[in-house]
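Quick one:
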Amino acid sequence: MTTIKDIAVSAGVSPATVSRILNNDTTLNVSPETRQKVLDTAHTLNYKKKSRTSSKSLYTLGIVQWFSPQQEMEDNYYLLIRQGIEDFCMQNCIHVLRTYKADVNYMDALKNVDALVCVGKFSSEEIARFRALTNSIIFLDMPVEDRNVSTITMDFADAMNTGLNYLTSLGHSRIGFLGGKEYLADGTLFPDVRRQLFCDYCLEHGLTFEAYIQEESFTTESGYRMMNRLLEQETLPTAVIASSDPIAIGALHALNDKGFRVPDDISLVGFDDTSLSAFTAPPLTTVHAPAYDMGNFGANIVFHILKQQPATAMKIQLPCRLVERQSCKKLQGTV
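Output:
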């Protein structure tokens, strides 16, 4: 049977340090790397934690990320979700098994997990395979119609209303939309509900928008191309809202390259509030999506699903908020 001393020798730390980490001693001053190394070692050695009244083993939470590692680094929205998950697990001595759909045989790596957090967009077949692994499961950033499956998503309806209310309050009535298309593993297009919400809002408020809609992918390069296509219009929008900050940043570069001034000529709003959005020129007004909190809440919820096995699933929507910077301004002549 594995002992604390075995873990200490393998991890290269003292037995006292191992004991305090395994007992979630928050006063212990060790690096996150050391803490995770001890947890990984305990899991690898199949350590069983015992007490006078009960015994239990450290359990493993699997993370399956639909983005590849490279895509995750390029768009830190999904990176922030994963960091939120992993921080909760570190604070609660939960072993993490991280996988990406791009990994070879990633499903095999998840076979022995106790709980699972699925991040991103998945097909019905993939959802069924994940649910076969464990009943303790939650999907983040994807609505799942099955009422027995817990999910956390962003409140896109309120977010889009917030962004468009802001632009119309500045006097804008010709507004463009730059969106992205995402496809599931079976080739099905996963619709970005923000496009329909944008169209519904514009129709309800009598705004000009039909000629100013572009969709491609959620990348800076796509934002650059889409904005260039918008600039070919005879009559230009006075404001543009994008479905992600990378799209908005690409659009900003296109405007700068064509000699347009933001916000003097065109106002621009992003979505996500990624770390780069505050350091563009000008700094980007954007809708803050609490990605880190989504991950942290998701890990917390699946932790309690594992422990308590509630009969009712949860469908949670997180509110978003507008972050005003310098990429938008009131139109001249607007009261």
